[in-house]
């Protein structure tokens, strides 16, 4: 039952926002009593925290699946963007923006895990791109990881609209790739840009 509650809450939080969904809403949607939810979660904050952890685990799993396939480094980044577009397509407001605004303590806890996950993903992608001749081999990997991370998280934490977040993230991805790319990488980027993510 606990997993079912988290699953439904996660879906509702992403679709309608962490702030606007109440324990009553979740209970009503699941046709259970609010008392049943409180049996597993003492308050809404705990439910949000566990739901966010599940979202992270899912995101991590999907990224691992994409990176294990035979995509080159640039295709891989576009596939990951597609995954995020699909995962958050029902969301109007950026989940990170909502957490930072309404639940700053949870946002802080989440951030530590998120920073590590994203920086590892960015670093591995850059190393792969260099090995494939798509990115220049003279770049300072850690600096580029931090630049890209700063760009993506500034967008997510400060822009309310998920649609606008997605559009700016695509611009950031193009900017990041062009900054590192070899001629071969630019050609690969242009090829991927012909297949827009919607």
Give a concise summary.
The chain is 78% helix and 0% strand. It has 198 residues and is mainly α.
Write a structural description.
This protein is mostly helical. Helix 4 runs parallel beside helix 7. The longest helix is centred in the middle third of the chain and has 28 residues. The mean pLDDT is 90. Pfam families: TetR_N (PF00440).
Biggest beta-sheet profile: none
The unreliable regions are none
What separation lies between the terminal Cα atoms? 35 Å
Question: How many DSSP-defined strands?
Answer: 0
Shape: elongated
Throw out a few tags for this protein.
HTH_TetR; DNA-binding; HTH-type_Tx_Regulator; TetR/AcrR family transcriptional regulator; Homeodomain-like_sf; 198 residues
SSE arrangement:
Blueprint: H1 2-16, H2 23-30, H3 34-40, H4 44-68, H5 73-87, H6 95-102, H7 104-131, H8 141-158, H9 162-180, H10 183-193
Helix pairs in contact: 1-4, 4-5, 4-7, 5-7, 5-9, 6-7, 7-8, 8-9
